[in-house]
Amino acid sequence: MLFKNYRFPGRYGPEWGSGGIFGLRYHNGVLYFTVAFEAEAHFIDVKSGEEKTYDFTLVGDAPTSGGDTYNAVETVDEFIYFGGWVHAPAVYREDRRILFNNKYSHVHVYDTAEGSVKLLWKESIHHETDWAGEISDIIYDPYGDRLLLAREDGHANLGVYSLDRKRGKAEPLITEPSPKGTRVHDVAFFGVGNNFTGGVREFRALDLISGKWEAFKPGGSVDGKPYERPELGAMASAYNRAFAFVRGGIFAGNPYMGEVFTFYRLLDFPTFYAPFRVNAINVGGGILTAFNSHHDASYRKDSSDAGIGWDFTNTLVGPSVLVYIAPPMVKIVGAFGARVTSIEKMDGKLLVATNTTPNTGATEATPFDTGNRDIVVLDEKILQERPPAVSFSVPLDLLRKAGKRTFGGIPLDGYKSARAIFYVKNDIKLKVYEYDLSLPAGTAEEEIVDLKAGRNVIDLRTFSGIVGFELEKEVKGKVRIELL
């Protein structure tokens, strides 16, 4: 498998920091992806090696920037539908801001038989600082032969829209912000809520046969403890359940089967470590996605951007990890740098798009993309092999700042050695929760450990599945978790 380019250094593309490689999709012998923020859509005929690029100028004039930053892509018959947003033309100001008058949300279609790109739909509110809801997900409705568009990131025209894939006409179905969705049986579930502020507040289900909507509130956590800011990064379905990957863990379940959407704490830290700006794909009957270390961040400490504080977004507690979901098992299968932006499978390989740099804030725009992006090619057999060595380091003072005492959700499956080293200033009790991703959901087992002032080593090999932690009270110190 040979590409002309595996690596994409930053080039001209005015926006907030770095975008990434998004929308990886292999269909009908063609590999598609978009490089953001340069607004370059790539279409590679894998057999011949011929590569075509498109600069989004069907939307508006050059120079363009953006493209897609949420993996909005779907395939139907010979067509690849790809969406997102684009500046056309991009207007960069030297006060490190961008004018949004020319920012459009869009859906294009690539015909793999003809090798041609067409603009199916675009929309803009032509405002200097605000924009219409970006297209962050596309789901095909095979009964209505239409595309369902999820829109959360923006100031107007948010919600779930229905797009006629022949006429290019879009109509709102619900108007609450929705970043992602997934199809299960004969319904499509969508997460509803605002990312960067509160996260998922409910799930909406569209009956694809009757057209009726129902709303479901998220349920509690298997460890019985509260969760905070469950910002939604990706959704997928398997086992007739919907899985919503959020900051701090996973919601899984299906109300139509008598289950609530239960929260399973997974890789929950007092930072913006999250499965954000990445997709989730089905592989081998399970689900593969990533939890990212550094996807959105404030660059300057005095940044006034609301909702993403400097400590919260720039404290790096661990590597980005690929996780494979095969209930009741959750297994780490890859360790990467700042972030994974897109995942796809092709010819027995896994394509993993990565980036060295996060998206930044509104007052920190640059005229070029600031990241180094590449595509890593792995063998699918990593799903069956031993997991990679991974470590996490969490400053306990961040728990105090976040008002948290419960954290963790460390998946142990596949590891022969695992330990947590707590360095604390005072004696304190620690509660360890042990659970797995059982469906229907169970409850966590608990064990209390007495930590003494100084260094404490907990052998996690005596536990199984997933382990979470709860401190009795605030304490200064740190914890290092090692998985080998």
TrEMBL record:
<dbReference type="InterPro" id="IPR016675">
    <property type="entry name" value="UCP016666"/>
</dbReference>
<protein>
    <recommendedName>
        <fullName>Phosphate ABC transporter substrate-binding protein</fullName>
    </recommendedName>
</protein>
<dbReference type="Pfam" id="PF09910">
    <property type="entry name" value="DUF2139"/>
</dbReference>
<dbReference type="InterPro" id="IPR011047">
    <property type="entry name" value="Quinoprotein_ADH-like_sf"/>
</dbReference>
<dbReference type="InterPro" id="IPR015943">
    <property type="entry name" value="WD40/YVTN_repeat-like_dom_sf"/>
</dbReference>
